[in-house]
Amino acid sequence: MADVLLEGRDLKKHYPVTRGFLQRTIGWVRAVDGVSFTIERGKTLSLVGESGAGKTTTAKAVLLLERLTSGSILFEGKDVYQFSQSQLKLEYRPRVQAVQQNPWSSMNPKMRVRDIIGEPLVVNTKQSKSQIRSRVLELLEQVGLMSDAGERYPHEFSGGQRQRIAVARALALNPSLVVLDEPVSALDVSIRAQIMNLLKDLQAQYNLSYLVIAHNLATVRYMSHSVAIMYLGQIVEYGEAEELFEKPLHPYTRALISASQLTIPEDGTQGAKQIILSGEMPSPLNPPEGCRFHTRCAESGESCSKDVPELKLIGQHWVRCNHYK
Amino acid sequence: MSNIILQVENLRTSFFTRRGEVKAVDGVSFYVREGETFGIVGESGCGKTVTGLSLLRLLPEPGGRIVGGKIILEGTNLMELSKKAMRTYRGKMISMILQDPMTSLNPVYPIGDQIAESVRLHQGLPDNMVEQEVISALRLLRIPSPEMILRQYPFQLSGGMRQRVVGAIAMSCHPRVLIADEPTTALDATIQAQYMALFKDVQQKTNVAIIFITHDFGVIANMCHRVAVMYAGKIVETAPTREIFNAPRHPYTSALINSVPRLDRKDDRLYSIEGQPPSLMNLPAGCRFAPRCSVVQEICREQEPPEVDIGNGHSVSCWKVK
Lengths: 325, 322
Known about the structure:
The complex is a heterodimer. By secondary structure, chain A is of the alpha/beta class. Chain A has helices spanning 55-62, 85-92, 113-124, 129-142, 159-171, 189-206, 217-223, 241-246, 251-260; strands at residues 4-19, 24-40, 44-48, 70-75, 78-79, 96-99, 177-181, 209-214, 226-231, 234-240, 311-314, 317-320. In chain A, α3 (113-124) crosses α4 (129-142) and α3 (113-124) runs parallel beside α5. The longest helix of chain A is centred in the middle third of the chain and has 18 residues, at 189-206. The radius of gyration of chain A is 21 Å and the shape is globular. The two termini of chain A are 27 Å apart. Chain B folds into 2 domains: 4-93 and 175-277, P-loop containing nucleotide triphosphate hydrolases (Rossmann fold, 3-Layer(aba) Sandwich), CATH 3.40.50.300; 105-174, no CATH class. Chain B has helices spanning 48-55, 83-89, 111-123, 127-140, 146-149, 159-171, 189-206, 217-223, 241-246, 251-258, and strands at residues 4-17, 20-33, 37-41, 64-73, 76-77, 94-97, 177-181, 209-214, 226-231, 234-240, 307-309, 315-317. In chain B, the strands form 2 sheets. An 8-stranded mixed beta sheet of chain B has the order 6-7-8-3-9-10-12-11, with helices on both faces. In chain B, α3 crosses α4 and α4 (127-140) crosses α6. At the A-B interface, α6, α7 and α9 of A face α6, α7, α8 and α9 of B.
């Protein structure tokens, strides 16, 4: 049996839409609508989707930065929502850390790098100054920065180096799970590979689990063990990364893969045939009836606008589509 | 083969700051044919956007200045035009789409007015004809129900629609050359695919030459006929798109292509280029890529490599290539 670190069960987050002086609720934005997943120890799960798919809300729920409307998060089998405040502070928060997307805005520009990396230790542990100093040096070395980097300020570093600092800060408390929200999308192409390789090395070394939020499928394939494709607050396809990329089942997944495929033009003509979706993602305030994707799906049949598809296990992975029985 | 519409020769653009001269574009030459898409690919700070802005002579002032070179558009050297004459070219003959549709549209004007602005300026049409032109520009970019959309404000449209409106403004006066600076970067993957397909269609209808500036090799593969790879203010390699992918000759080009993860195969480990691009204020002597190059030789650190034409429209600046 797989060693499950964290499990999300039927997560829902609905935001009220209010109007007028009395702030009457006139509707609900179903940002996340029944999402379940598991993250194994030492493995990477990626949530993929376009803006508005609900991937960031899901990640925020895992970090307990958003309170769910319903659903539960199990950490090592225990329901996090049943934890007391002190339990959360001791047993959950230090073990689940995050790296933000933009290394230009995720650090206080007035703090030295050693204080930025050491802050989680000051807040969460009772270590002495010298202990913290040596831990910071150790972390700097792990992420491939020079030991004198600690004395400098964030503006003295490039984007890639800053992202290394952010990774060092996330690792300070020896977490089990790191939530990586678009960890490389703000970086330059030649720097992305450096950071992705670093993240993979650290994962192997410390048996870390990652929850990656990303929109670039090639990055996801390189980083992940399993992948969940999200559309309008729901998971439409979920499975092992290799399986999912080799044999995508859901029409949306196939369109996404086609849109991000690098097609080298042959004999001077331009790229191969791509699947081009029509229209845009509908508003989560008023999602389409039946299958939520049917308004843009090239393969939608008559039943798709009526029947709500369930997540079904087809072969090795889960898919939410009426075409699979 | 169709005619060369734009020829850039030894373009040099610098920013003069208190700390010294920043050579953002340092001797860039290329040409674009009618109906062709020419890609400029590179990392941030390599000078690709400044190249685009220089072609329009729209550099931020004070500070930015074109210090040398020629920009020949249909036989006219844009560098020799007065500011006033340049204004009649800009938008009409050569226009540009910027990266972020949130910031390139004015939030307090309906989008119809924003397209009409350039139509009025360049074509001097009476008001009732202006609206027709605006609608046809919106149609060209396949914006649904243009009569209605032109009375809407930017905030009422989605990101993809807004970027189409920006495209409609750029195409409204039927330019011969369109510079597109990362037009798809701010868009979602499926919307990005729509936008690129749309552009191919617009190009077929109008035969416009497109200069596509991007950092994304996927976009290059999909859109461009020929590509130039830029590094630290210089073009290091120019080739037809297929050659860039199948037979890159410059070490930077191949390293860059290898460091991008691929969707169609499982990579165990990505190739990564060590270090980072040099500061443009303090460039290394010799080849600018030498400090990061894996096949560096003695001469690379001393002399700048010349541009070598290796046939098939493929040229490389590297000492390794003879």
